[in-house]
Amino acid sequence: MFDAKKLPDVLAGLFIGLVLLLMAFPLEWFSGSIPGHVLGMAGTIMMLLALIYPFRKRILKKKGKQNPLLPHIYFGLVGSSLVVIHSGHKHASTIGVLIFVAMLLVVLSGIVGKMLYAKVNRSLRSHKSDLALLTQAFRERREAGDLTLNACRLVVEQEKVSTWEGEDEEDLTEEADLADVRARCEMLGEIAEAMADKEGAIQVFSQTQKYFSFWSNVHIFSTYFLLAMVGVHVLTTIYYGLRWLP
Amino acid sequence: MAAVNKVFHIGVAVGMIVFSIWLFSQEQAAEPGALKPVHEENAVCSDCHLPWQRVDDSSCDGCHSFTDTFSLRPEIRFHEAEEHCLDCHSEHRGRTGNISRMDHTLLNPDLLCSTCHLDPHEQLFGEDCRACHGISTWSVAGYRHPPVDRQECNRCHRAPLSHQDLEFWQRIEKRHNIRVGDIGDLTPTECWKCHVIHDWQHLKM
Q1: Residue B31 and residue A239: Cβ atoms within 8 Å?
Q2: Nearest CA to CA, how far is A56 from chain B (Å)?
Q3: More confidently predicted of B22 and A154
Q4: How far apart are CA B17 and CA B12, in angstroms?
Q5: How many CB pairs under 8 A join A and B?
Protein backbone atom coordinates (compact mmCIF):
# COMPACT_ATOMS: atom_id res chain seq x y z
CA MET A 1 0.00 0.00 0.00
CA PHE A 2 1.38 3.38 -1.01
CA ASP A 3 2.12 5.71 1.87
CA ALA A 4 0.89 9.23 1.02
CA LYS A 5 3.50 10.69 3.36
CA LYS A 6 6.16 9.49 0.96
CA LEU A 7 4.66 11.33 -2.02
CA PRO A 8 7.00 14.36 -1.71
CA ASP A 9 10.01 12.01 -1.71
CA VAL A 10 8.63 10.18 -4.75
CA LEU A 11 8.08 13.48 -6.59
CA ALA A 12 11.58 14.68 -5.67
CA GLY A 13 12.97 11.39 -7.00
CA LEU A 14 10.91 11.82 -10.19
CA PHE A 15 12.30 15.33 -10.70
CA ILE A 16 15.93 14.27 -10.21
CA GLY A 17 15.37 11.17 -12.38
CA LEU A 18 13.93 13.29 -15.21
CA VAL A 19 16.86 15.71 -15.08
CA LEU A 20 19.34 12.83 -15.31
CA LEU A 21 17.33 10.99 -17.99
CA LEU A 22 17.13 14.05 -20.24
CA MET A 23 20.82 14.72 -19.69
CA ALA A 24 21.51 11.26 -21.09
CA PHE A 25 18.85 11.40 -23.83
CA PRO A 26 18.10 15.03 -24.75
CA LEU A 27 14.91 15.84 -26.68
CA GLU A 28 16.07 19.08 -28.22
CA TRP A 29 13.24 19.31 -30.74
CA PHE A 30 10.58 19.04 -28.06
CA SER A 31 10.79 22.48 -26.46
CA GLY A 32 9.69 24.29 -29.64
CA SER A 33 6.84 21.91 -30.47
CA ILE A 34 3.21 22.50 -29.54
CA PRO A 35 3.15 19.70 -26.90
CA GLY A 36 6.42 21.13 -25.56
CA HIS A 37 4.89 24.60 -25.24
CA VAL A 38 1.79 23.17 -23.57
CA LEU A 39 3.91 21.32 -21.00
CA GLY A 40 5.97 24.46 -20.41
CA MET A 41 2.85 26.52 -19.78
CA ALA A 42 1.31 23.87 -17.52
CA GLY A 43 4.56 23.61 -15.54
CA THR A 44 4.82 27.39 -15.19
CA ILE A 45 1.23 27.65 -13.96
CA MET A 46 1.87 24.93 -11.37
CA MET A 47 5.04 26.63 -10.19
CA LEU A 48 3.10 29.89 -9.89
CA LEU A 49 0.48 28.06 -7.82
CA ALA A 50 3.31 26.98 -5.51
CA LEU A 51 3.77 30.68 -4.71
CA ILE A 52 0.43 30.71 -2.87
CA TYR A 53 2.24 29.26 0.16
CA PRO A 54 4.87 32.03 0.57
CA PHE A 55 2.20 34.64 -0.24
CA ARG A 56 -0.06 33.38 2.55
CA LYS A 57 2.89 32.92 4.88
CA ARG A 58 4.64 36.24 4.39
CA ILE A 59 1.89 38.62 3.25
CA LEU A 60 -1.21 37.19 4.96
CA LYS A 61 0.85 35.91 7.93
CA LYS A 62 -0.91 32.52 7.88
CA LYS A 63 1.21 29.86 9.50
CA GLY A 64 0.98 26.25 10.63
CA LYS A 65 -2.20 24.37 9.82
CA GLN A 66 -3.74 27.47 8.26
CA ASN A 67 -1.11 27.34 5.53
CA PRO A 68 0.08 23.76 4.90
CA LEU A 69 3.41 23.21 3.15
CA LEU A 70 2.43 20.07 1.22
CA PRO A 71 0.56 21.77 -1.68
CA HIS A 72 3.61 24.03 -2.11
CA ILE A 73 5.81 20.92 -2.43
CA TYR A 74 3.41 19.13 -4.80
CA PHE A 75 2.91 22.10 -7.14
CA GLY A 76 6.61 22.96 -7.06
CA LEU A 77 7.88 19.46 -7.83
CA VAL A 78 5.24 18.51 -10.44
CA GLY A 79 5.53 21.93 -12.13
CA SER A 80 9.31 21.80 -12.30
CA SER A 81 9.20 18.21 -13.61
CA LEU A 82 6.93 19.36 -16.45
CA VAL A 83 9.30 22.25 -17.15
CA VAL A 84 12.25 19.81 -17.30
CA ILE A 85 10.40 17.78 -19.97
CA HIS A 86 9.49 21.02 -21.77
CA SER A 87 13.17 21.99 -21.89
CA GLY A 88 14.11 18.65 -23.47
CA HIS A 89 17.53 19.49 -22.07
CA LYS A 90 18.04 21.94 -24.92
CA HIS A 91 20.24 24.62 -23.50
CA ALA A 92 21.05 26.70 -26.54
CA SER A 93 19.85 30.12 -25.39
CA THR A 94 21.32 32.11 -22.53
CA ILE A 95 17.87 32.69 -21.06
CA GLY A 96 17.10 28.97 -21.25
CA VAL A 97 20.30 28.12 -19.39
CA LEU A 98 19.63 30.75 -16.72
CA ILE A 99 16.07 29.49 -16.19
CA PHE A 100 17.24 25.89 -15.90
CA VAL A 101 19.97 26.74 -13.38
CA ALA A 102 17.57 28.90 -11.35
CA MET A 103 14.97 26.11 -11.36
CA LEU A 104 17.53 23.54 -10.21
CA LEU A 105 18.60 25.88 -7.41
CA VAL A 106 15.01 26.46 -6.33
CA VAL A 107 14.04 22.80 -6.33
CA LEU A 108 17.25 21.41 -4.83
CA SER A 109 17.39 24.08 -2.12
CA GLY A 110 13.74 23.28 -1.42
CA ILE A 111 14.40 19.55 -1.16
CA VAL A 112 17.52 19.93 1.01
CA GLY A 113 15.91 22.66 3.11
CA LYS A 114 12.80 20.58 3.71
CA MET A 115 14.83 17.53 4.76
CA LEU A 116 17.14 19.57 6.98
CA TYR A 117 14.37 21.62 8.49
CA ALA A 118 12.17 18.63 9.24
CA LYS A 119 15.01 16.69 10.85
CA VAL A 120 16.35 19.60 12.90
CA ASN A 121 12.89 20.65 14.02
CA ARG A 122 11.98 17.14 15.08
CA SER A 123 15.20 16.72 17.06
CA LEU A 124 14.93 20.15 18.62
CA ARG A 125 11.34 19.52 19.73
CA SER A 126 12.32 16.15 21.21
CA HIS A 127 15.31 17.59 23.11
CA LYS A 128 13.25 20.49 24.44
CA SER A 129 10.55 18.17 25.66
CA ASP A 130 13.17 15.92 27.36
CA LEU A 131 14.74 18.97 28.99
CA ALA A 132 11.36 20.12 30.35
CA LEU A 133 10.78 16.67 31.89
CA LEU A 134 14.26 16.59 33.39
CA THR A 135 13.89 20.11 34.82
CA GLN A 136 10.58 19.16 36.39
CA ALA A 137 12.05 15.96 37.86
CA PHE A 138 15.05 17.90 39.18
CA ARG A 139 12.81 20.44 40.94
CA GLU A 140 10.47 17.81 42.35
CA ARG A 141 13.28 15.72 43.81
CA ARG A 142 15.04 18.73 45.26
CA GLU A 143 11.85 20.08 46.84
CA ALA A 144 10.70 16.69 48.13
CA GLY A 145 13.93 16.08 50.01
CA ASP A 146 14.35 19.76 50.84
CA LEU A 147 17.77 19.40 49.37
CA THR A 148 19.77 22.46 48.64
CA LEU A 149 22.97 22.60 46.71
CA ASN A 150 24.67 23.46 50.00
CA ALA A 151 23.47 20.18 51.57
CA CYS A 152 25.00 18.21 48.70
CA ARG A 153 28.15 20.25 48.95
CA LEU A 154 28.30 19.39 52.67
CA VAL A 155 27.96 15.68 51.87
CA VAL A 156 30.88 15.92 49.50
CA GLU A 157 32.92 17.83 52.11
CA GLN A 158 32.04 15.21 54.75
CA GLU A 159 33.25 12.43 52.46
CA LYS A 160 36.55 14.22 51.97
CA VAL A 161 37.00 14.61 55.76
CA SER A 162 36.08 10.92 56.29
CA THR A 163 38.56 9.81 53.71
CA TRP A 164 41.45 11.76 55.21
CA GLU A 165 40.77 11.62 58.97
CA GLY A 166 38.96 8.31 59.46
CA GLU A 167 35.49 7.75 60.96
CA ASP A 168 34.69 8.44 64.67
CA GLU A 169 31.69 7.27 66.73
CA GLU A 170 29.63 10.39 66.09
CA ASP A 171 30.02 9.97 62.39
CA LEU A 172 28.93 6.34 62.60
CA THR A 173 25.59 7.27 64.29
CA GLU A 174 24.78 9.65 61.42
CA GLU A 175 25.97 7.25 58.73
CA ALA A 176 22.50 6.05 57.70
CA ASP A 177 21.14 9.60 57.18
CA LEU A 178 24.25 10.56 55.30
CA ALA A 179 23.98 7.60 52.91
CA ASP A 180 20.40 8.56 52.12
CA VAL A 181 21.35 12.17 51.45
CA ARG A 182 24.27 11.01 49.37
CA ALA A 183 22.05 8.75 47.22
CA ARG A 184 19.59 11.56 46.63
CA CYS A 185 22.40 13.94 45.81
CA GLU A 186 23.85 11.46 43.32
CA MET A 187 20.46 11.13 41.68
CA LEU A 188 20.18 14.90 41.43
CA GLY A 189 23.68 15.05 39.98
CA GLU A 190 22.73 12.52 37.29
CA ILE A 191 19.62 14.50 36.40
CA ALA A 192 21.67 17.69 36.26
CA GLU A 193 24.19 16.03 33.96
CA ALA A 194 21.42 14.82 31.66
CA MET A 195 19.98 18.37 31.66
CA ALA A 196 23.38 19.76 30.68
CA ASP A 197 23.62 17.23 27.83
CA LYS A 198 20.18 18.18 26.58
CA GLU A 199 20.97 21.90 26.82
CA GLY A 200 24.15 21.30 24.79
CA ALA A 201 22.20 19.39 22.13
CA ILE A 202 19.54 22.12 22.00
CA GLN A 203 22.27 24.68 21.44
CA VAL A 204 23.73 22.63 18.56
CA PHE A 205 20.33 22.13 16.92
CA SER A 206 19.43 25.79 17.40
CA GLN A 207 22.65 26.65 15.59
CA THR A 208 21.77 24.20 12.80
CA GLN A 209 18.35 25.80 12.59
CA LYS A 210 20.12 29.08 11.96
CA TYR A 211 22.03 27.40 9.11
CA PHE A 212 18.66 26.43 7.68
CA SER A 213 17.97 30.11 7.16
CA PHE A 214 20.84 30.01 4.65
CA TRP A 215 19.00 27.34 2.61
CA SER A 216 15.82 29.26 3.03
CA ASN A 217 17.50 32.37 1.61
CA VAL A 218 18.94 30.39 -1.32
CA HIS A 219 15.42 29.07 -1.96
CA ILE A 220 13.83 32.53 -1.75
CA PHE A 221 16.38 34.44 -3.83
CA SER A 222 16.67 31.74 -6.49
CA THR A 223 12.85 31.88 -6.69
CA TYR A 224 13.06 35.64 -7.33
CA PHE A 225 15.61 34.94 -10.05
CA LEU A 226 13.56 32.11 -11.55
CA LEU A 227 10.44 34.29 -11.67
CA ALA A 228 12.38 37.09 -13.36
CA MET A 229 13.83 34.67 -15.94
CA VAL A 230 10.46 33.03 -16.60
CA GLY A 231 9.07 36.52 -17.26
CA VAL A 232 11.88 37.27 -19.72
CA HIS A 233 11.50 33.84 -21.37
CA VAL A 234 7.75 34.22 -21.88
CA LEU A 235 8.10 37.80 -23.15
CA THR A 236 10.92 36.99 -25.58
CA THR A 237 9.05 33.93 -26.87
CA ILE A 238 6.02 36.07 -27.69
CA TYR A 239 8.10 39.05 -28.84
CA TYR A 240 10.04 37.02 -31.42
CA GLY A 241 6.89 35.26 -32.57
CA LEU A 242 5.26 31.96 -31.84
CA ARG A 243 5.08 29.93 -35.02
CA TRP A 244 1.99 28.03 -33.94
CA LEU A 245 -0.12 31.10 -33.13
CA PRO A 246 -2.79 31.85 -35.75
CA MET B 1 16.16 44.23 11.64
CA ALA B 2 12.91 43.29 9.92
CA ALA B 3 12.93 46.66 8.13
CA VAL B 4 16.50 46.06 6.90
CA ASN B 5 15.46 42.58 5.71
CA LYS B 6 12.48 44.02 3.85
CA VAL B 7 14.62 46.70 2.18
CA PHE B 8 17.14 43.99 1.18
CA HIS B 9 14.38 41.88 -0.40
CA ILE B 10 12.99 44.88 -2.26
CA GLY B 11 16.52 45.77 -3.42
CA VAL B 12 17.09 42.27 -4.76
CA ALA B 13 13.69 42.28 -6.50
CA VAL B 14 14.43 45.65 -8.14
CA GLY B 15 17.88 44.35 -9.19
CA MET B 16 16.24 41.29 -10.79
CA ILE B 17 13.79 43.49 -12.70
CA VAL B 18 16.61 45.72 -14.02
CA PHE B 19 18.63 42.63 -15.03
CA SER B 20 15.55 41.15 -16.74
CA ILE B 21 14.95 44.31 -18.76
CA TRP B 22 18.61 44.35 -19.81
CA LEU B 23 18.47 40.65 -20.73
CA PHE B 24 15.27 41.19 -22.75
CA SER B 25 17.08 43.84 -24.80
CA GLN B 26 19.83 41.34 -25.75
CA GLU B 27 18.73 39.59 -28.95
CA GLN B 28 21.42 36.91 -28.69
CA ALA B 29 20.24 35.85 -25.22
CA ALA B 30 16.92 34.63 -26.62
CA GLU B 31 18.37 32.81 -29.63
CA PRO B 32 17.22 29.18 -29.25
CA GLY B 33 20.01 27.85 -31.47
CA ALA B 34 22.53 28.99 -34.07
CA LEU B 35 21.41 29.83 -37.59
CA LYS B 36 22.69 28.14 -40.73
CA PRO B 37 25.85 29.99 -41.82
CA VAL B 38 24.13 31.24 -44.98
CA HIS B 39 21.38 32.89 -42.93
CA GLU B 40 23.72 34.11 -40.25
CA GLU B 41 25.90 35.88 -42.81
CA ASN B 42 23.11 37.37 -44.87
CA ALA B 43 20.26 38.14 -42.47
CA VAL B 44 19.50 39.99 -39.27
CA CYS B 45 16.84 39.03 -36.71
CA SER B 46 14.37 41.63 -37.93
CA ASP B 47 14.39 40.11 -41.43
CA CYS B 48 12.19 37.31 -40.10
CA HIS B 49 11.06 38.44 -36.64
CA LEU B 50 8.73 41.39 -36.32
CA PRO B 51 8.05 42.43 -32.71
CA TRP B 52 5.06 40.66 -31.11
CA GLN B 53 4.11 38.97 -34.40
CA ARG B 54 4.36 35.38 -35.51
CA VAL B 55 7.05 34.54 -38.04
CA ASP B 56 5.41 34.72 -41.44
CA ASP B 57 6.01 32.78 -44.68
CA SER B 58 6.39 36.09 -46.47
CA SER B 59 9.70 36.69 -44.69
CA CYS B 60 11.22 33.85 -46.78
CA ASP B 61 10.13 35.50 -50.05
CA GLY B 62 12.55 38.35 -49.49
CA CYS B 63 15.44 36.11 -50.50
CA HIS B 64 13.93 32.88 -51.86
CA SER B 65 12.00 32.76 -55.10
CA PHE B 66 10.58 29.70 -56.86
CA THR B 67 8.96 31.26 -59.89
CA ASP B 68 11.52 29.96 -62.37
CA THR B 69 11.42 26.32 -61.31
CA PHE B 70 13.40 25.00 -64.26
CA SER B 71 16.46 26.74 -62.95
CA LEU B 72 16.21 24.62 -59.78
CA ARG B 73 17.53 21.17 -59.09
CA PRO B 74 14.83 18.59 -60.00
CA GLU B 75 14.35 17.45 -56.39
CA ILE B 76 13.32 20.91 -55.21
CA ARG B 77 11.16 21.97 -58.16
CA PHE B 78 8.04 21.08 -56.21
CA HIS B 79 8.46 24.33 -54.28
CA GLU B 80 6.64 26.14 -57.09
CA ALA B 81 3.37 24.64 -55.91
CA GLU B 82 4.04 25.45 -52.26
CA GLU B 83 3.31 28.58 -50.25
CA HIS B 84 3.70 27.49 -46.66
CA CYS B 85 7.45 27.47 -46.13
CA LEU B 86 7.26 27.23 -42.35
CA ASP B 87 5.28 23.99 -42.42
CA CYS B 88 8.50 22.24 -43.40
CA HIS B 89 11.29 24.68 -42.63
CA SER B 90 12.38 26.17 -39.33
CA GLU B 91 15.65 27.80 -38.39
CA HIS B 92 17.75 27.95 -35.20
CA ARG B 93 18.65 24.27 -35.35
CA GLY B 94 22.38 24.85 -35.14
CA ARG B 95 24.96 25.59 -37.79
CA THR B 96 24.87 22.02 -39.09
CA GLY B 97 21.31 21.19 -38.10
CA ASN B 98 18.64 20.13 -40.58
CA ILE B 99 16.22 23.01 -41.19
CA SER B 100 13.95 20.99 -43.48
CA ARG B 101 11.35 18.45 -42.52
CA MET B 102 10.26 16.51 -45.61
CA ASP B 103 6.65 15.57 -45.21
CA HIS B 104 5.04 14.41 -48.44
CA THR B 105 1.58 14.64 -46.92
CA LEU B 106 1.97 18.45 -46.82
CA LEU B 107 2.63 18.76 -50.54
CA ASN B 108 0.18 20.04 -53.07
CA PRO B 109 -1.92 17.02 -54.18
CA ASP B 110 -1.79 18.13 -57.81
CA LEU B 111 1.98 17.86 -57.82
CA LEU B 112 3.33 15.01 -59.98
CA CYS B 113 5.74 12.70 -58.15
CA SER B 114 7.86 12.56 -61.30
CA THR B 115 8.66 16.27 -60.80
CA CYS B 116 11.22 15.14 -58.25
CA HIS B 117 11.40 11.33 -58.41
CA LEU B 118 12.59 9.09 -61.22
CA ASP B 119 9.94 6.56 -62.21
CA PRO B 120 11.42 3.07 -61.78
CA HIS B 121 8.42 1.65 -63.63
CA GLU B 122 9.34 3.66 -66.72
CA GLN B 123 5.75 4.95 -66.99
CA LEU B 124 4.40 1.41 -67.39
CA PHE B 125 1.83 2.26 -64.68
CA GLY B 126 1.16 5.80 -65.82
CA GLU B 127 1.92 9.03 -63.91
CA ASP B 128 -0.49 8.73 -61.02
CA CYS B 129 1.84 7.10 -58.47
CA ARG B 130 -0.64 7.85 -55.67
CA ALA B 131 -3.12 5.44 -57.26
CA CYS B 132 -1.03 2.57 -55.86
CA HIS B 133 1.43 4.08 -53.38
CA GLY B 134 0.62 5.46 -49.96
CA ILE B 135 1.99 8.95 -49.67
CA SER B 136 3.45 8.72 -46.20
CA THR B 137 4.88 5.19 -46.36
CA TRP B 138 5.19 4.68 -50.13
CA SER B 139 4.07 1.10 -49.56
CA VAL B 140 1.55 -0.32 -52.02
CA ALA B 141 -1.61 -1.06 -50.11
CA GLY B 142 -3.30 -4.32 -51.01
CA TYR B 143 -0.88 -5.11 -53.86
CA ARG B 144 -1.02 -8.68 -55.17
CA HIS B 145 1.39 -10.00 -57.74
CA PRO B 146 -0.29 -11.58 -60.80
CA PRO B 147 -0.92 -15.34 -60.55
CA VAL B 148 2.01 -17.69 -60.82
CA ASP B 149 0.90 -19.06 -64.18
CA ARG B 150 1.29 -15.68 -65.89
CA GLN B 151 4.12 -15.66 -68.37
CA GLU B 152 4.21 -11.98 -69.31
CA CYS B 153 6.78 -10.80 -66.80
CA ASN B 154 8.32 -8.50 -69.37
CA ARG B 155 5.21 -6.31 -69.36
CA CYS B 156 6.48 -4.80 -66.11
CA HIS B 157 9.95 -6.17 -65.53
CA ARG B 158 12.95 -5.59 -67.73
CA ALA B 159 15.76 -8.18 -67.82
CA PRO B 160 18.98 -6.84 -66.34
CA LEU B 161 21.95 -6.12 -68.59
CA SER B 162 23.65 -9.36 -67.58
CA HIS B 163 20.89 -11.29 -69.35
CA GLN B 164 21.82 -9.65 -72.67
CA ASP B 165 25.31 -11.05 -72.46
CA LEU B 166 26.15 -14.34 -74.22
CA GLU B 167 28.85 -15.13 -71.70
CA PHE B 168 26.24 -15.03 -68.94
CA TRP B 169 24.20 -17.76 -70.57
CA GLN B 170 27.29 -19.83 -71.38
CA ARG B 171 28.22 -19.71 -67.71
CA ILE B 172 24.71 -20.73 -66.69
CA GLU B 173 24.81 -23.73 -69.03
CA LYS B 174 28.27 -24.76 -67.85
CA ARG B 175 27.60 -24.37 -64.17
CA HIS B 176 24.22 -26.06 -64.06
CA ASN B 177 24.98 -28.53 -66.81
CA ILE B 178 21.86 -27.64 -68.73
CA ARG B 179 21.02 -26.58 -72.23
CA VAL B 180 19.26 -23.25 -72.29
CA GLY B 181 18.68 -23.42 -76.01
CA ASP B 182 20.14 -21.94 -79.05
CA ILE B 183 22.00 -19.10 -77.41
CA GLY B 184 22.13 -17.04 -80.52
CA ASP B 185 18.32 -16.99 -80.77
CA LEU B 186 17.68 -16.48 -77.04
CA THR B 187 15.46 -13.54 -76.04
CA PRO B 188 15.43 -12.98 -72.28
CA THR B 189 11.67 -12.58 -71.92
CA GLU B 190 10.82 -16.06 -70.68
CA CYS B 191 11.68 -15.27 -67.08
CA TRP B 192 9.30 -17.93 -65.73
CA LYS B 193 11.53 -20.66 -67.16
CA CYS B 194 14.14 -20.03 -64.44
CA HIS B 195 12.52 -17.69 -61.88
CA VAL B 196 9.67 -18.44 -59.55
CA ILE B 197 7.22 -15.69 -58.78
CA HIS B 198 7.01 -15.98 -54.99
CA ASP B 199 10.79 -15.69 -54.62
CA TRP B 200 12.63 -14.07 -57.48
CA GLN B 201 16.07 -15.01 -56.12
CA HIS B 202 15.11 -18.66 -55.96
CA LEU B 203 15.76 -20.31 -59.29
CA LYS B 204 14.23 -23.52 -60.62
CA MET B 205 17.66 -24.82 -61.62
Answers
A1: no
A2: 17
A3: B22
A4: 9
A5: 70
